[in-house]
Structure formats: C-alpha cells, structure tokens
Amino acid sequence: MLHRMRSTLAVVAALSEKPANAASELESVPAPTVVVSSPRCEEDAFPLVSFLDSLRVELAGRGLRCCTLAESGAGIPTSASLHVNIEELGHCGTEPERVRITVQQRSDGFRTLDREISLSDVTQAARPRALALAVAELIRSLGEDAPNDTTKVETSAPQRSHPLPQPLAQPDASPVAFSFQIEAETRYFPMRDTTLWGGRMRLTARRSSLHADVDMGANYSQMQTELGALLMRSASIGVGFGPRLELALANIDFGPRAEVGLAWVRGTTTLADVATASGSGVVATIGIRAALEVPANMRMKPCLSLETGGVVQGVNGNVSGQAVTGVGGYYFLAALGLAVTR
C-alpha cells in the first residue's frame, strides 16, 4: 500500500513539473536571427562594418538578433532566421552606388521582398547608414505583408538630412530700360561747304540686345559772302533702331537713322544796293549711326555719336543765283554728350 502511494506521489510530482518546464522552454526560444550576405566584391570594397553597426541600431527593439554573416546567396531562410542579401549592381567599386537588397523569411509560408537602391546622390560617409535605413524599412515591410506575397519594388535611397536647394526661379523676360542723352553736335555737308552746329535730346529704349530711340534737335549756320551773310536755322526729329552691344567697359549702339525737319534761310546785308530775301523748306536725311557710352557700369556717363548718310530732301541758300550754302548731297555728323540711364 505504501509502495502505491509513493508511485502516485511521483506521478503527481512529475505532472506538476511539466508546466514549469514548458514555460522554461518557451522562454528559451531564441529570437529570429538576421543573416546578412555581403556583396561578392574584394575586401574593403563594401563598407560592411559601418553598415552592420548602423543596421543593429535601426533594428533595436524589434525582437531580432543582428547579425550573422554568410556567403552571398547561401542558405535558405528558416522560421528562426531572416536572410538579407546585398548585391552590388555593375562592377565592384570602392564605394557602391547602386545595390539590390533581397529580404527572405519563412514564417507561415515563404515571403520575399527585393528593392534596388541608388546611392549616387548620397555622400560616401552617409552611404552605410542610408543602406541600413533601406534594409530596416524593407524588413518592416516584410513583416506587414501577407504570407506568400512576393513583391518587387524599385526606389531611391533615403534623402539627405538637409533639404536640397530649390531650383532658382526663372527670371522674367528682360525689362525695357531707358536712357536720356543731351548732345552737342556738328554736321558737315561737303557739296554745299556748309557746317551746321546745334544740340539734340534723345530718348533711347533698350531690351536685351536691341535698342530704339527718338530724338529732337535744332541747328544753325552762318555763311559770310561779299554781298552779305546767309543765316540758316533748322529743327528736326529723328528715329533710329538696331543692335546693342553691352560690353564690360562700354555700350555700343549701331543702326540706321532717319531724320525730317524744317529749315529757314535768310539773307542779311549792309549794302544799300543789295536786296535780301528769306525762305524755308523741308529737309530729310537717312544715315547710319554708331554711339558709344563709357564706362558701361555707371548710371551717368559720357557718350559719343558718329553718323553719315545722304540728304533726301534739302534746301539751298543762293547769292546772285548761285547756291553758296544749304543742306544737300551727303553729310558727316559727330556728337558729344551725356547719357543718364534708369
């Protein structure tokens, strides 16, 4: 009878020990191990140590043991392991610029994710951590996917911590700029042996490499003869346009110019037996003008203009029926002034 009771007590003791052993067995189940397969490159061709240190930090607190190294492509994932395979695309280099990451796990089915990562826009010092961030993100995505789901995603590497510079806004079309000139000018008509002196005001509009201007001015001349003097006065307006060269030291305007105006001629004498008369007429010229402004970077600067052309419509001052002065033939013009730019 005593023998049976001891046996029964032994059985009860054995049964009471099973739950404790079962709990101990559950607590001793190891966490899944992350197995990393590095690229098949020469030694020091891949920053493996820095990458693994960064990966341990990124996977901390996720119940994973990081990390065990293996040959590239070796091993089949089990329920107790998660395989990460890193393959450098192209030839092996001292710093990988494009890699493919493959994460595989066997838990209630076989699951795999792979992603191609571009590191070309990441500095060399930040590439190990950027790669570790991408691997950790892929592991998290694998844990969220449904079983037996194979996904292939291609994306770029994580961006740098500092924001990329924004592209500069495209400037609007070049605005129109204006300049105002006051000039003293002289023009010579060789066929009439006449020199006109005067002044002119000019407004110039310029945009990019073109210019257009409008001007108005007045001139006078006096021709002395044996019988008396011929006085000539004129007023005119002109327009011009053409290319504009903006150089480091000077601005140069060049182009055709047309002018139209009115001229008056009057004779004076001190002789009693000499009769005098006066008259007027339209004058018009067409020519080529070049203007120089220096220095280019100043708001107020001197300017020089040169012009030559021909008379389309002219007037003459006659003495005893002979033209001794007037506007006719061809001409040369020179002007010196001051330009103000706004």
CATH architectural category of the largest domain: Beta Barrel
Structural class: alpha+beta
Unreliable residue runs: 1-27, 146-161
- Measured as a percent range, the helix fraction is 10-25%
Strand order of the largest sheet: 7-8-9-10-11-12-13-16
DSSP strand count: 16
Average of the residue pLDDT scores: 79
Count of DSSP H/I helices:
3
User: What's the CATH topology name of the largest domain?
Assistant: Porin
Please compute the radius of gyration using only Cα atoms: 48 Å
Determine the N-to-C terminus distance.
Answer: 124 Å
Please, could you describe this protein's structure?
The structure is a single chain. By secondary structure, this protein is α+β, with helices and mostly antiparallel strands. The protein folds into 2 domains: 124 residues, Rossmann fold (3-Layer(aba) Sandwich); 165 residues, Porin. It is 16% helix and 51% strand. It has 3 helices and 16 strands. The protein has an 8-stranded antiparallel beta barrel. The radius of gyration is 48 Å and the shape is rod-shaped. The N terminus is likely disordered.
Quick recap:
The chain has 342 residues and is an alpha+beta fold. It contains three helices and 16 strands.
